[in-house]
Specification:
The chain has seven domains: about 200 residues, HUPs (Rossmann fold), CATH 3.40.50; about 50 residues, no CATH class; about 45 residues, no CATH class; about 200 residues, Valyl/Leucyl/Isoleucyl-tRNA synthetase, editing domain (Isoleucyl-tRNA Synthetase, domain 2), CATH 3.90.740; about 80 residues, no CATH class; about 150 residues, Isoleucyl-tRNA Synthetase, Domain 1 (Orthogonal Bundle), CATH 1.10.730; about 60 residues, Ubiquitin-like (UB roll). It contains 29 helices and 37 strands. The strands form eleven sheets. Strands 10, 11, 12, 13, 14, 15 and 18 form a seven-stranded mixed β-sheet that branches. Strands 24, 25, 26, 29, 30 and 31 form a six-stranded mixed β-sheet that branches. It has a four-stranded parallel β-sheet with strand order 2-1-22-23, covered by helices on one side. The protein is globular and about 100 Å long. The two termini are about 65 Å apart. The chain binds one RNA strand of 87 nucleotides through strand 6, helix 10, helix 13, strand 19 and helix 16.
Length: about 950
RNA sequence: GCCCAGGUGGCGGAAUUGGUAGACGCGCUGGUCUCAAACACCAGUGGUAGCAAUACCGUGUCGGUUCGAUCCCGACCCUGGGUACCA
C-alpha cells in the first residue's frame, strides 16, 4: 500500500470531527492541563507559514500531555476586532463584519487541514456580541472599582464614597491622580458633576486628558508607527501632539503586583526582564522646587536626592503645564517656536535622537529648596511629559545626558560625588559625567563626607521634615489608554447625562455595535460611531462614541474558553475551579509589553473581585520565534516612472519599494506580472541588467504590508499536513527566529515515507508478533527516552532528528515486530497525527491513538559497561580510548600514558596534571 | 537612543550551556538500479596541505579567565523584535 497522505489525512480529519475526539469536559478523575495559543487576528492574507509554528508546537505538547493521562483543554478562537478590517472597510465600503467572517472561514479551513487537536466547540470571537458582552461587563466593573493601597486590592467605589462621606478624602490610601483634599462636609455639598470628577481620579477605568498624535487632515489619531517625521505615513499629512479626553485603565495601581507576580511564573528571563523594564520601578524622592517670582512649585522626581546640591539647571518637557506661564516676554517667541516644533515629533523620535542637543531657556529661574540657589529653567524635548512629572532637576556632573546639555549650552557643572579611590576633579576638564553609584559626597552641606546610600536616606528625611519633598516610588509604566476613535471595536457601555458619564445596567448588555454609513471619522473629527443613527439610550442620553482598543478583547479570552457558552456569567465557578489557569501559553514575544501585561492586569483585577482563582493567568510561557519573510524590493527613480534593477540602483536617485514575492523568482522580477499588480505604474520603464530585472532582498517580519507572506496551503497539498507539521518543527528551536525557506521539506517528506515503509512489505502492512532482537529494542528505548525528554523541554527539532535516527536504525535491523513498531507509532503521534492514526488502526486498534499511553522506557536496556573517552593533550583531542566503567583513575592514567598514540604528545615533556572527568573526558596537561 | 534576543560549514541547525564542534536534514560530488528519468539505495562532503596516516586553522570581531571556552567576563560590529493607537 502506497503512502497516500491526502486520503489518510482527509479520512482521519473527518472521523475525528464526527467522533468529537478533541472535545473535552471537566473530569475530576483526571488531572487537568490547559494548553493555550495566542489566538490569531484573521487578516485578508490568510494564515501564513509563521502562524502554525506556535500552533504545531502547542498541539504536540497537548497531544503529548493527553498520552500522559491528562485531561487537556486546547481551545482556539479569533481576535477579530482591529484596524486591518476597518482600513479595508474605509477603502472598499465592505462592512468589517463581512470581511472578518470571510477571513475567519478561510483561517478555519487552513487550520483544519493541519490536523490540530483544538476543541472547536469552545471557539470564541472577540467581535461576537455574546463574547464582548463580557468585555463590556469587565469595563463596568473596572469603572466601579478603585484600588486600595493599604489592602493591595481593588474595592467597590461604594466603599470609597462611604469613606468620603464620613471622613473626607484623607482617610484612604488609594491609587489615584492628584487632587485637592476635601472634608466630608465639602464632599456632601459637591454637585453630582463635581463628585463624578473627583471619583474619576480613583476609578480603575476613568476619563482623563492624554496626549495623542492628532492628524487634522485625516480627522483621526495615529499610532507612533504611523507617524514619520511629523507627517502621517498614509497620505503625508501633518500630525501634531494634542490633548484629548480618553478612557484609561489604571494599570499603574497594579504595578507592584505585576512586578512581584513575575517571580512566581515560569517565563523566560528575557521576557520577565522586558516586563520589569517596562514597569520600570525606581525608588527615590519627589522634590518641590520654587520658581522665582511665582507661587507655583515645580515637582520633580529623582532617584538621587543626594545630588541635589549638584543641580545647576532644570528642564521641563515642552508640554509641561507651567511652560506657558513662566516663559518670560523676551524668550517667548523662541520658546513658542520650540514647543511648536516638539509637537510635531513623536515620543520615539524625541528619544531616539540624542546626538542633536536642543533646548530653549525660559528666562525663568527655579529655587533649589536646599540652598536657595537660583537655577535656570530650560525647555527640552528629551524630557517627556508622560514620564515622572514631566520635569527634571539636572545634575550634569553625574548624568551623561545632562552633561552634554550643560556643555552645549555652557551651564556650570558641579561635582558632588567622588568615586572611591579618586580625588575631586576640575569639571571643566571632564569629557563626560562621572559615575556616582558609589562614592563620597562633597560640596553638599550637611551630607558632606557621607556615603551615597546614607546620604540619600538623610536627604529624604530632611525633605520630609521641611515639607519640601518626600520619598517616592516612581514607575515608568503608564496607565493604558483605553479608547480609540475607530469603528471596529467594542462599544463602551457608557452614556452621558449633563456631561457626567454613567455605565449601562448589566442587564442592558451587550451594547451592540451599531451600523454606520461610512467607517471614517465625521467631518468634525468625531469617531465613526457618531455617524450611527439613534446612538443613545432609551431615555435619549448620548452614548460614548469611542470604541475599545485591540487589547480589550484579548485580555480575558482564556477565561471565557473555560465556559464559552455561559449566558449568565463570564464563566462559571465550577469551570474556573476545575481549569484554574493556563498551564502552557505559546505565542510571539512581540506581545511582551502589550497583551501579556494587559492580560495579567485584567486577570489580577478579576481575581480581586472574586472571579479568577489564580492571580497569574499564564503559568508557563513559551515564545515561538518569528518566521521571518524574505522580502523583495524594486527601485523606483524619484519623480520618474522608471524602475532600475538592483545592481544599477546607485546610479540613480531611487526609492526602495516592496514588491510581492509571489511575482519574483530567484530575485528575478516578472515584469509583466508587476505591471498587472501595480496598475498605477503599468506604463513604467524598466532598466534591466543582463536582460533581467533583479530585485533586492531583505529578511523582515512576515506581513501583508511587506508583500512577503507565504501561505501553507500549497505545501499541504504537495506534501501533506504531517510533513509540513514536522518540517516546521525541524526548522530549528521553537524559540528561534528563522527566515522561511522551503528547501529541506523534501528531507522530512522522505522520512515520513521511510517511516511508512517500516510497517510495509511488498506494499502490504506486514508486522510480526515475534520478539524483537536486542539491537532493535535498544534503538526503541533510546528513542523513547530521548523523545520524552526532548518534548518536556520543548526541543521538537531534536525529537524529529531522533525519530529519523531510530527509523534508519530499525530499517537497518529489518525490525518488523509489533513490540518495537507499535510504540514508535505512539511516539510519532504528537508530531504526525494522521499517519500515526492510520498505522494505529492497521495494527487493529479500535480507539484513537490520542488515547494511547506514552510508552515507558526500560533503563536496563541502555546500560553500558564501558565508555569511549576522548583523550586530549593540553585541551586538544588526539585519540579515543575505550575504558571499562569500573577502572580506577590510576589505572586509566597508566593506560593513557602507555598508549602508543600518546607518546608523540608526551615525549620530552613533563606531566603537570592528569584530568579525568567521568563519562566526559580525559585531559593530559604536559609542559 | 533605550529594552530584549541572536550571530556555528554552501544552507536550516546539533552539542540539554565549561569537557570529542558540525548530530539530523537540505544541497553538492561520485556510484548502483533504469533505454532514460523519477523514486530508492550506497559512498563522500568545514577549510588548507597531503596518495594517505596525519597536521594546522576554524563557532561575528578583538581581548581576558581556565588544564580545557560555541558556552563565562570585558569592549566592539552586524541582524531581528519591542518602544505604549498594528496585532
Amino acid at each position: 500500500m502506497e503512502y497516500n497522505f491526502t486520503n489518510i489525512e482527509k479520512k482521519w480529519q473527518k472521523i475525528w470531527k464526527a467522533n468529537q475526539v478533541y472535545k473535552v469536559t471537566e473530569d475530576n478523575s483526571k488531572p487537568k492541563y490547559y494548553v493555550l495559543d495566542m489566538f490569531p487576528s484573521p487578516s485578508v492574507a490568510g494564515l501564513h507559514v509563521g502562524h502554525p509554528l506556535g500552533y504545531i508546537a502547542s498541539d504536540i505538547y497537548a497531544r503529548y500531555k493527553r498520552l500522559r493521562g491528562f485531561n487537556v483543554l486546547h481551545p482556539m478562537g479569533f481576535d477579530a476586532y482591529g484596524l486591518p478590517a476597518e482600513q479595508y472597510a474605509i477603502q472598499t465600503g465592505t462592512h468589517p463584519a463581512t470581511t472578518t467572517e470571510k477571513n475567519i472561514k478561510r483561517y478555519r479551513s487552513q487550520l483544519d487541514q493541519l490536523g490540530f487537536s483544538f476543541d472547536w466547540s469552545r471557539e470564541v470571537r472577540t467581535c461576537d456580541s455574546q463574547y464582548y458582552k463580557w468585555t463590556q461587563w469587565t469595563f463596568i466593573q473596572l469603572f466601579h472599582h478603585w484600588y486600595d493601597q493599604s489592602q493591595q486590592k481593588a474595592r467597590p467605589i461604594k466603599a470609597l464614597v462611604d469613606s468620603f462621606e464620613k471622613q473626607g478624602s484623607d482617610a484612604v490610601d488609594a491609587a489615584r491622580d492628584e487632587h485637592e483634599p476635601f472634608s466630608a462636609e465639602a464632599w456632601k455639598q459637591m454637585s453630582e458633576k463635581q463628585q463624578s470628577d473627583i471619583l474619576m481620579h480613583y476609578r480603575l477605568a476613568y476619563l482623563s486628558e492624554t496626549m495623542v498624535n492628532w492628524c487634522p487632515a485625516l480627522g483621526t489619531v495615529l499610532a507612533n508607527d504611523e507617524v514619520k517625521d511629523g507627517y502621517s505615513e498614509r497620505g503625508g499629512h501633518p500630525v501634531e501632539r494634542k490633548r484629548m479626553q480618553q478612557w484609561s485603565l489604571r494599570i499603574t495601581a497594579y504595578a507592584e503586583r505585576l512586578l512581584k507576580g513575575l517571580e512566581k511564573i515560569d517565563w523566560s528571563d528575557s521576557l520577565k526582564e522586558m516586563q520589569k523594564n517596562w514597569i520600570g520601578k525606581s525608588v527615590g524622592a519627589s522634590v518641590d522646587f520654587g520658581i522665582e517670582g511665582h507661587d507655583e512649585k515645580i515637582e520633580v522626581f529623582t532617584t538621587r536626592p543626594d545630588t541635589l546640591w549638584g543641580t545647576t539647571f532644570m528642564v521641563l518637557a515642552p508640554e509641561h503645564k507651567l511652560v506657558e506661564k513662566i516663559t518670560t516676554g523676551e524668550k517667548k517667541p523662541e520658546g513658542d517656536a520650540y514647543i511648536e516644533k516638539a509637537k510635531k515629533r513623536s515620543e520615539r523620535e524625541r528619544q531616539a535622537e540624542t546626538k542633536a542637543i536642543s533646548g530653549v531657556f525660559t528666562g525663568a529661574y527655579g529655587i533649589n529648596p536646599l540652598n536657595g540657589k537660583k537655577i535656570p529653567i530650560w525647555i527640552a524635548d528629551y524630557v517627556l511629559s508622560g514620564y515622572g512629572t514631566g520635569a527634571i532637576m539636572a545634575v550634569p556632573a553625574h548624568d551623561s545626558r545632562d552633561f552634554k546639555f550643560a556643555r552645549h549650552f555652557d551651564i556650570p557643572i558641579i561635582q558632588v560625588v567622588v568615586p572611591k579611590g579618586e580625588q575631586p576633579g576640575n569639571t571643566d576638564e571632564w569629557e563626560d559625567s562621572k559615575d556616582s553609584t558609589e562614592g563620597t559626597i562633597i560640596n553638599s552641606d550637611f551630607i558632606n563626607g557621607m556615603k551615597v546610600k546614607d546620604a540619600i536616606r538623610k536627604v529624604i528625611d530632611y525633605l520630609e521634615a521641611q515639607n519640601i519633598g518626600h520619598a517616592k516610588v516612581n514607575y515608568k509604566l503608564r496607565d493604558a489608554i483605553f479608547s480609540r476613535q475607530r469603528y471596529w471595536g467594542e462599544p463602551f457601555p457608557v452614556f452621558y447625562k449633563n456631561g457626567v458619564p454613567y455605565t449601562l445596567d448589566i442587564n442592558q448588555l451587550p451594547l451592540n455595535l451599531p451600523e454606520v454609513d461610512k467607517y471614517q471619522p465625521t467631518e468634525y473629527g468625531k469617531p465613526p460611531l457618531a455617524r450611527a443613527e439613534n446612538w443613545k439610550t432609551e431615555d435619549g442620553y448620548p452614548l460614548e462614541t469611542n470604541t475599545m482598543p485591540g487589547f480589550a478583547g484579548s485580555s480575558g479570552y482564556y477565561l471565557r474558553y473555560m465556559d464559552p457558552h455561559n449566558e449568565e456569567r463570564y464563566f462559571s465557578a465550577e469551570a474556573v475551579n476545575y481549569w484554574q489557569d493556563v498551564d502552557l501559553y505559546i505565542g510571539g514575544a512581540e506581545h511582551a509589553t502589550g497583551h501579556l501585561i494587559y492580560a495579567r492586569f485584567w486577570n489580577k483585577f478579576l481575581y480581586d473581585i472574586g472571579l479568577s482563582v489564580k492571580e497569574e493567568p499564564f503559568k508557563k510561557l513559551i515564545n515561538q520565534g518569528m518566521i521571518q519573510g524574505r522580502s523583495n524590493f524594486v527601485y523606483k527613480v524619484k519623480n520618474d516612472n522608471k524602475f532600475v534593477s538592483h545592481g544599477l540602483r546607485n546610479q540613480y536617485d531611487t526609492i526602495k519599494q516592496h514588491v510581492n514575492v509571489n511575482i519574483v523568482n530567484n530575485d528575478i522580477l516578472d515584469v509583466e506580472a508587476f505591471r498587472k499588480w501595480r496598475p498605477d505604474v503599468g506604463d513604467a520603464e524598466f532598466v534591466l541588467e543582463d536582460d533581467n530585472y533583479i530585485c533586492g532582498w531583505e529578511v523582515e517580519k512576515m506581513s501583508k504590508s511587506k508583500y512577503n507572506v507565504q501561505n501553507p496551503d500549497d505545501l499541504v497539498e504537495q506534501y501533506g499536513a504531517d510533513t509540513l507539521r514536522m518540517y516546521e518543527m525541524f526548522l530549528g528551536p521553537i524559540e528561534a527566529h528563522k527566515p522561511w525557506d522551503t528547501n529541506g521539506i523534501e528531507g522530512v517528506f522522505r522520512f515520513v515515507k521511510k517511516f511508512w515503509r517500516l510497517f510495509h512489505q511488498d506494499n502490504r502492512f506486514s508486522v510480526s508478533d515475534e520478539k524483537a532482537d536486542e539491537k532493535s529494542n535498544k534503538s526503541l528505548h533510546a528513542c523513547i527516552k530521548k523523545v520524552g525528554e526532548d518534548i518536556e523541554r520543548f526541543s521538537f527539532n531534536t525529537c524529529i532528528s531522533t525519530l529519523m535516527i531510530t527509523t534508519n536504525e530499525l530499517l537497518e535491523h529489518k525490525a518488523a515486530q509489533r513490540e518495537v513498531l507499535e510504540p514508535m507509532v505512539i511516539l510519532l503521534a504528537p508530531f504526525a497525527p494522521h499517519i500515526a492514526e492510520e498505522l494505529w488502526h492497521l495494527f487493529g486498534n479500535d480507539g484513537s491513538v490520542v488515547d494511547a499511553e506514552f510508552p515507558a522506557f526500560n533503563p536496563s536496556l541502555l546500560v553500558e559497561n564501558s565508555f569511549e573517552y576522548p583523550v586530549s593533550f593540553n585541551g586538544k583531542m588526539r585519540f579515543k580510548l575505550d575504558v571499562p566503567n569500573d577502572m580506577k583513575k590510576e589505572d586509566i592514567q597508566e593506560a593513557v600514558m602507555n598508549h602508543p598514540k600518546a607518546q608523540k604528545w608526551i615525549e620530552g615533556k613533563q606531566l603537570i596534571k592528569f584530568i579525568f572527568v567521568p563519562k566526559k573526558i580525559i585531559n593530559v596537561v604536559v609542559k
